[in-house]
Amino acid sequence: RKMSTKLKPKVFVTRRVPEDGINLLRQKCEVTQWDRDEAIPRHEILNGVKGVDGLFCLLTDKIDEEVLSTAGENLRVVGTMSVGYDHVDLSACRKRGIPVGYTPDVLTSATAELTMALLLTVSRRIQEGVTAVKDGSWGTWAPLWLCGQGLEGATVGVVGLGRIGFAVAQRLKPFGVSKILYTGQSEKASSAQLPAEYVTFDKLLNDSDFVIGCCALNSKTTGLFNADTFKKMKKNAIFINTSRGGLVNQDDLYTALKNGDILAAGLDVTSPEPLPTSHPLLTLENCVVLPHIGSATLKARNAMSELCARNIVAALYGEPIPCQVK
Ligand code: NDP
Ligand code: DGY
């Protein structure tokens, strides 16, 4: 479709998002928005996308063939305000020649920090401590009460040494870990800087005191952490996941935590989100669940919103997209 010089391209935004992105979009585009903090219902996305040139979406929105075909042939770009893009049907976008923008790097530090915070919360039993202070079960200082596992001298396994995995490994070093292992689809040249050793998934599970899930969710990583993998871990292993809930078979995790196959777990991501308050994992003292707040600093969220908008504007004005999913 030829763009008229007078008409601004239309963009639909699926949520109330930080102003940096919206202001930038408004300068160049005609914006309609689901201007609420709650996730947009499916029928409202389908309504909102009709005839638009660009779509600004979040990880809570499933962008599939139905959304694309409902948008129609004007749609020239999908931008997600996230680095994960497992909610976007890439092959459907590719078939239609629609590029997908995303927001790597700007949230890496924030997510790595939260991963460390969660790891330390679990390993030093902070959730149990805070609860004890509040509910009066804090009796007295006691030599063996709430003793956890330290990072000093530990072997840590990072599953997926990508941007966030690498940033987590960097932050582990000052804690005096003895070894960092990693696994993934390929060995990374950058691992020499840490250093971190490339090993098989099984060796990582077998040798690590801490196992941290930092990889993308895809068909190969779905359910990667299951009864079989938890059994291969050390009995004192602590499992952390800040990637996507789909990596974990949660029933198997519950059983592993209950039976003592592993020591404890910390999850920033679950399946589904929110995790129902009745979920068995929430009954366990050795499991800490956070509400998907890895990138939740104002700085990161502003930057994500702005980068998402820049990706969309660039695509709509025929310029190179700053961050396009390959
Ligand atoms: P990167 O693309 O830089 O890293 C992804 C890593 O996943 C790569 O190292 C890749 O390894 C690995 N990977 C992909 N497929 C497999 C596989 N089959 N087996 C093992 N490893 C695999 O992404 P980021 O580090 O920027 O982000 C990673 C993920 O973190 C995002 O996809 C997102 O889901 C999640 N995330 C969660 C946040 C939160 O709020 N909790 C915040 C931000 C991100 P290789 O290169 O060898 O293929
Ligand atoms: C992402 O960007 O993929 C996170 O899950 C949220 O920031």
TrEMBL record:
InterPro entries (alphabetical): D-isomer_2-hydroxyacid_DH (IPR050223), D-isomer_2_OHA_DH_cat_dom (IPR006139), D-isomer_DH_CS (IPR029753), D-isomer_DH_NAD-bd (IPR006140), NAD(P)-bd_dom_sf (IPR036291)
Molecular function (Gene Ontology), one example: NAD binding
Top-rank taxon: Eukaryota
GO cellular component terms, A-Z = cytosol
What Gene3D superfamilies does the entry give? Answer: NAD(P)-binding Rossmann-like Domain
- Which CDD domains does this chain map to? GDH
Q: One Pfam family this chain carries? A: 2-Hacid_dh
Can you name this protein? Glyoxylate reductase/hydroxypyruvate reductase
Keywords noted in UniProt: Oxidoreductase
So what family is this one in?
Belongs to the D-isomer specific 2-hydroxyacid dehydrogenase family.
All copies of the D-isomer specific 2-hydroxyacid dehydrogenase NAD-binding domain together span 116-294
Domain named D-isomer specific 2-hydroxyacid dehydrogenase catalytic: which ranges? 11-325
